[in-house]
Amino acid sequence: MSSTVRMLVLAGAGVLVALAALGALIGDRATDDGFEATDLVQDLEQAPVTPADEEAPEGAPSDSEPPVDDAEAPPTPQLHAEYFADRDPGDPRALGDPDAPIVMIEWGDFLCGFCARYARETAPELIERYVDTGVLRIEWRDLPLQGDDAWTAALAGRAAADQDAFWDLHEILYADQPADRPVRLTRAGLREVAADLDLDIVEFESSLDDPDNATSVATERQTAQALGIQGTPAFLIHEQPVMGAQPLQVFVDVIEAAAADLGVDLPER
Q1: Would you tell me which of 86, 112, 233, 236 could form a disulfide with 105, CB atoms 3.0–4.6 Å apart?
Q2: pLDDT of res. 180
Q3: What domain range includes position 161?
């Protein structure tokens, strides 16, 4: 089942409950690490209320008589990384064993300085501790929010992925200082990066213009926006969102709590 289909499964009432759960989980996490957590969740419409002077429909329970329902209530949908994970062994934008017990979805923007900080300071340790030991799989999703250059960079990521060089491009772009990015993330600048990586430039240019890649980037951005995510980086690890370039220990705590929940033995450090 594709990520798009899984997104549709969460539509309607189910996704509203999931969004409410997301809001509760991150409500205390407003930080300076990229964006305010309160911006992540869209306001949910209140259920219509019968006015006090309007007679309740026939058969409706009164305030003094709670309803009796022998039927079991439907389960509350859980926001879960598995809804969005492809676990495709050939995915060039994923790291780790496709069958790793824990999956982390990462939404990123190549123009985002906080994404760069996470990529340089936190991701290498997570990869060493959990990806390389088979505990965690990381799957990248595009969320270009900072204008045309961010969009072009996301397409460049797809173009590099088409030549199995996504993570090489990822490393170079996030190694740059933010002041360099507005120049480097132009089409011409990204072509220079592709040349530095010894990519086929004709194929790279063709991938940049591939409408399927543009549609895929747009779909991933729409998925994030459907979840109310309005800033990067954003992560969903098992059932727990992590917002912004949080300290390493935040990721460690969430991953190890997920491992405990799943009964997964962690490697000794």
Answers
A1: 236
A2: 65
A3: 3-42+79-262
